[in-house]
Every structure is written in C-alpha cells, then in structure tokens.
User: Which sequence fits this backbone?
C-alpha cells in the first residue's frame, strides 16, 4: 500500500500544496499529513474516497449528481479535523462548476444541418450488455429514448443528419449527450451510439417475423 500511495508523477501545485499521481491514487502534500484521495464518476453518480494513514482516518462521499461537491466536503473535513485555516471549498467548487457549465461541451451543428431520415428509420429496440434495452420511439414531437428500469424518457433533439442530442432529466447542468444512429444497407439504423460514458453502443434487436 505504501508503494501504491507514494508519489510517482508531479501533477502541479495549488496554494502551495503540491499534488502527485501515484498508482491509482492522488497524493496531496497537505499539512500536517498528506491526504491520499481519488474521485470517480459515471452517468449520474460521483464518488470521493480520501484518507490520512498517519491519523487513521478515512472518508467516503457519495453523490447522485456529477458535481465537485464530494471533493469540497472531503477537503473541508480535512481542514476542520486538523484545525487548518477555514477555506470555502464549496464556493470555489461552485464557481468552477458554473464556469465549466457555461462552455458548450458539444459544438454547434453545421449551418444548415443535414435533414434526418424519416423517424421510422431510427425507431426500434436496441440492446447493450451492460445497460440493457433502449427503446427509440417516433412520437409527434420527434424521437424519444426510453432507458433503464425506471423507464426514463429522454427526448432526442435533432443535431445533424443521423445525430441527435439528449438530456438526462434531473441531473443538473451540463449533462447533454450525443446520440448517433449508424445506418445499414437497408436504410435503417442498426446501431445506436450514446455518448454518456465515452461511446456506448446499443445494437438493434432483430424484429420478430
């Protein structure tokens, strides 16, 4: 564990505190003891794990949003526990979050965008071994993607040709994702690629005769 937690690569300095990357962990040279930590996240979930081996303390913060609040809480706990000067980690994290959210993650579509195919060319049931089934239905307002055990409905807004944009409901700002249909020789989509964890492919399920 000491080998995993020991500094390997310099990451930079913030307010005089140098951070290093270890083997799967981050080493922050805080006072009075270094803080070993790492975060992680996926669609709609965020985790922060931090501990101070010399003091025998550890902290796990779980969130059901992609936010920097877990890190802010962990750093605040560290300061309170060791009596360090107070610092408003939450305010600083919120300012960075708003700055990032104000910058579009997806570039604007070409002008004018290429028109989509008829909606029925995209509609169907798609499947992924991890996420299960995804239903794409053609409704009056356009395409609607239904996913998950809770049957979350995500309207897909046309972007350019076979590319659409969707937003996860109740997940905060900056959660827009790209949905791309790959068209086969028969003029119908055979694959749906959702850009929520990198690029996640859903293959069209064969229709029963």
Assistant:
């Amino acid at each position: 564990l000491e080998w995993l937690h020991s500094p390997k690569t310099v990451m930079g300095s913030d307010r005089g505190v140098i951070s290093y990357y270890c083997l799967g962990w981050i080493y922050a040279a805080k006072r009075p003891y270094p803080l070993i930590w790492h975060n992680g996240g996926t669609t709609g979930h965020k985790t922060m794990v931090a501990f101070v081996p010399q003091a025998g303390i550890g902290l796990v913060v779980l969130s059901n949003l992609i936010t920097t609040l877990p890190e802010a809480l962990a750093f605040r706990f560290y300061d309170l526990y060791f009596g360090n000067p107070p610092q408003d980690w939450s305010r600083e994290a919120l300012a960075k979050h708003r700055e990032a959210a104000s910058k579009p993650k997806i570039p604007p579509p070409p002008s004018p965008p290429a028109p989509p195919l008829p909606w029925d060319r995209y509609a169907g049931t798609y499947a992924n071994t991890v996420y299960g089934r995804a239903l794409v239905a053609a409704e009056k307002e356009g395409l609607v993607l239904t996913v998950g055990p809770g049957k979350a409905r995500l309207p897909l807004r046309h972007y350019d040709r076979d590319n659409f944009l969707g937003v996860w409901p109740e997940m905060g700002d900056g959660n827009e994702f790209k949905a791309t249909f790959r068209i086969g020789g028969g003029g119908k989509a055979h694959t749906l690629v959702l850009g929520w964890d990198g690029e996640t492919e859903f293959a069209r399920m064969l229709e029963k005769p």
Residues 49 and 60 are 5 Å apart (CA to CA). The two ends are 58 Å apart (CA to CA).
